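pinging the channel bc i need a second pair of eyes. not urgent but kinda urgent?? the chain im working w is below, pasted from the shared doc
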Amino acid sequence: MHRMRFSLFLLAIAILGLNNIKVGDSSPVSTFYTVKDSSINLQQVGNKKVLITFFRYAGCPICNYRVHELTEAYDSLSEAGFIIVGIFESSTDIMKKYVNEYKVPFHVVSNADGSLYNEFSVPVSLTKTAKYSSKKRVRYFHKQGMKYYDGSVYKRDGKLLRSTADFVLENGAFTLVNYNKAIGDHVPLSEL
């Protein structure tokens, strides 16, 4: 009985966003392990800025559009001092195939168990998922994502109601925190 109450309490905190990361906080994770068998240790990035961006799963057209945007802007973001870490709720095997097929130039992390999403308080949200379908801009992203990527190859292997988020870490502290209001509401590249 006490365990159930405690679980409900933790769920309420997550839903209310009381444990969300805020600007000025440090990262709850110090090292990311990529699908290319490398790692990014956040204490060893020097004066680089780290864009940590949470996606849904490999077959998500809206996420694929954002991957396309980041791939197109990769050189200019790198020149501006950014390291990009993209986190997907897809299996390692699927993400390895995805990264190779689409020549994704930035670091990609597979997090099929959702543990990183939990660490960063990126929720599963019916509300945010429902909002996406009503936004003209997001519908455009969906259409473009379908054009750039073959969604039939990558079946959904993550949570359909998973939200997305963006974080920028500089000198050990977050300078930008964006819990997207709807799926695909990533920070515009011009703001980075």
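so The chain has seven helices and seven strands. and The first helix runs from residue 2 to 16. — does that match what u expected or am i reading it wrong
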